Known about the structure:
Pfam families: RmlD_sub_bind. InterPro entries: dTDP_dehydrorham_reduct, NAD(P)-bd_dom_sf, RmlD-like-bd. The chain has helices at 12-21, 40-50, 64-69, 71-92, 126-141, 167-181, 198-208, 227-238, 267-271, 279-288, and strands at residues 3-7, 26-30, 54-57, 95-101, 145-150, 153-154, 185-188, 192-193, 196-197, 215-218, 225-226, 244-247. The chain is of the alpha/beta class. The chain has a domain at 3-156 and 196-223 and 263-277: NAD(P)-binding Rossmann-like Domain (Rossmann fold), CATH 3.40.50.
Amino acid sequence: MKKIVIIGSNGQLGHDIKKILSNTYEIVSLEHNNFSIENEELVQKKLKEISPEIVINTAAFHNLNLCEIDVQNAFLINSIALKYLSDTCNQIEATLVHFSTDYVFGGDSQRNSPYREKDFPYPIQIYGISKLAGENIIRQYCKKYFCIRVSGLYGKKGTRAKKFSNFVEMMIKLGRDAEKANEKLPSAMDQVLTFNPTVEVAKVVEKLIKTDAYGLYHATCEGQSSRFEFSQEIFKILDINVELVGVKSSYFSPKYNQPHYSVLDNEKLSDLGIEMPHWKPVLKKYLKD
Length: 289
């Protein structure tokens, strides 16, 4: 039985990856509170001690507001630490699985068609810039890797780094509060992306690691929506009676630049025969569960 290390197994994505893979592989969990990928000595010592065949890294500095303020930590965790992981994985002959983001795009203000893996990245905030730098480090230094760009993640476990566990849970809370107070709720109409349950990304990981088709992949559900349209669907499924008002992103006074369009095309996954479902039925299943 192959041994897999999951870095960040207590996080939103790591939790579902562990759940999907635990029946087939020996899983060693390295959680955020006792393992820091930015500690080079710890990374080398721990991974060499465990000696896994596969290392799955879900750790990231993904609070976009904080990235703009604490630029040093953003690059340390999202970029420089990938050199430590790449070097150590090479030494123990392990495959590295790492996750990037649709936010490596956004600079093309006229874009309205999904980005493919071969399209030129153009991030417009520190988070995206630091994640793209991490991609470049892996591509240059890691011998065996899967770098998977994801988008709009939500999962049952939730994320530790934000006020709300994920966008879905945030909209449910805001929607129910607005319904109770008989108030209208603003939602951005000018951000188009694809929202994805973490369990669907975990299923892709399970399929990819059975291959040696290393490289960069997009892994998102089919279809796209604005945040406004996605929120409408949540309220429709849950029968939350609230009036959404479409607004521009600037209404919320964000502290970082946001892409107006960051939908990803799963071209390379499709070439391997790996298909992902449309975002609507999986959202319904998530809410039902």
